[in-house]
Amino acid sequence: MLKRDNSKQVFYYDDFLGHNEVEILKARGGETALIYALKLISNNPNKKLILTTRSFILNSAVESSEKLRIFNIKAKESIIELDEYTTEHKLRLLSNHIQESSLEADLKSVLDNKRIQSFIVTHRNFSPRSVEFITTPDKVSNFSPQEFEDFIIQNFDKPDEIWRHAYEQQINDYDRLLLNTMVSFGDGIDLEPLELAFNARLQYEVHHGGFTHPTNAFLRSFQRLEGGFIVQEYVEDQKLFKFINPSLVDFLTSYIGNTSSEITRIGESALFLRQITTRILPIIDKSTKVNGLSDNLIDKLLNNNGSFLKKDTFNEDSLTLAIMLHYYIDLESSEPVTRRLLHGIDDWVFLKSNEELLFAMKSFLREVKSAGIISDVRNLGIDFFKIILLTETSILGATEYLKLIVDKFEPNLPNIIKEGASVDLEEIFTDLLNQKILDDIDDTLSYANAQDFIDAKEEESVEIQDFLEKIGIKARANFSEFGNYDWRSIGNENYFQEQMEKDD
């Protein structure tokens, strides 16, 4: 528990963003609490918060989170490379995994062998993931001690070869099609869309790859793969089918990513937009794009995209496709289709609950330069812009987009607001501005230079209020809150406390 005093505390949160896409999306629900904790601790020199995750997961989370991006969490990032682990660190990590594992005693005895431990911690392919893999009972419980030792050696000598051998030699073409289809969705997927997408891929291969279509192909492959490659998992009462281990996802992503023909075939046979936006043409982290944009896929996206626009998710699919086309296909070809898709969206309320698309749309608004598309967005009207603004949880983020809207899309917004569209906006901006004042006060209570800091924060809040008033939004800020404290005394007390602790 965080103590609101100057006592020294360290908080440690391992894998705070989760291991995969499903967990990352779930973690976004707690971002407000996380940001609040970060603010409290970052401004107190006696409190430390250590959050661990892998770099690519952090990059993905920051790219898709407005809150983390504004907070600039990466400014505090420290990267620990594997080559910085000493032998002692590796031994300690291995010992912790052995102790926490529920392996049978005869298998633990293999790991307790000094020769095996030395092999593991000195191996060039040592990684925490490899250690986790060999100490997970589900993977090794059926091994004899000798088989387990052989497995350990093989896993470290050729980490990819375990999955490569199983993928290339132990399953058939139909099983591989199912795995490749599944990984195109990400880390987890419901059974129904997986079966539909698999059948679409199989039909593609019947026409282009010389395959036949055996009876119950999906069910047979699924039954062969379940338990060895695929497992069931419940996430918030939703049954998902996931890969048995993150290392299998890594292998498949790398294997397929280095096979351009397979990327092309996945794209051309895709039945759901998610199959394209997850790996091939992402609309959030565009740096993860792989080379799979064939002429046939371009034609499908531009001229035959109706199959991607599902009845139940028509508006979401239309926006996803519009953004994807604008990012990845030349403007001359994509602009008419992008504009038609945007025109076809009849209700934008889905942005309130779809965080991924909301973030993608906000990025799109920042980046779009086409005069025609900007004109179309302007014509969406005040109700659309209110959805964008009302989903912001900080005054800084909301003000950023308000300025963008006025400067780029709706210079007449002040007049529209004055004509009566301001009630919701005035309420939300009043609440956000007052929350900023309370947060600033809370932060400053631990500062040695409290008076200077609070003066700067008050000036910042006044500037925000003045800007809002200029465009017709009357945010009622409680500036009197700043005067409820003797900031010079607070600053002097904090400074004295800091010096006492330094002397200790």
Describe the structure.
With 504 residues, this protein is mainly alpha-helical. The protein folds into 4 domains: 9-79, no CATH class; 83-157, no CATH class; 158-292, no CATH class; 381-501. 63% of the residues lie in helices and 5% in strands. The protein is built from 28 helices and 5 strands. The strands form 2 sheets. It has a 3-stranded antiparallel sheet with strand order 3-5-4. Strands 1-2 form a two-stranded parallel ribbon. A hairpin with a 2-residue loop joins β4 (230-235) and β5 (238-243). α12 crosses α13 (191-208), α19 (314-328) runs antiparallel to α20 and α19 (314-328) runs parallel beside α21 (355-367). The chain is flat. The two termini are 24 Å apart. The mean pLDDT is 84.
List keywords for this structure.
flat, two-stranded parallel ribbon, mainly alpha, single chain, 504 residues
Q: Bin the helical content.
A: 55-70%
Number of strands: 5
| Largest sheet report | 3 strands, antiparallel
Low-confidence spans: none
Mean pLDDT over the full residue set? 84
Question: By helix and strand content, what is the structural category?
Answer: mainly alpha
The order of strands across the largest sheet is 3-5-4
Could you tell me the radius of gyration in angstroms? Answer: 27 Å
